[in-house]
Amino acid sequence: MTPAKKPRGGKPTAGQKQNNREINSIRAAAERAIAHVKVRRICSLPMPRASR
What we know:
- This protein has 52 residues and is mainly α.
- It has a domain at 14-43.
- It has 1 helix and no strands.
- The chain has one helix at residues 14-44.
- The radius of gyration is 20 Å and the shape is elongated.
């Protein structure tokens, strides 16, 4: 889902603003969850050893 755009030369309605807030809060939570998964995966991988 994508947030509603501001109309050209106008302001978004109160309903559009509320809808955008709800969409953005869900998106932010999803992005945080993905970041946590990535960090956990990176931390769980063994460190590469330098060849001599």
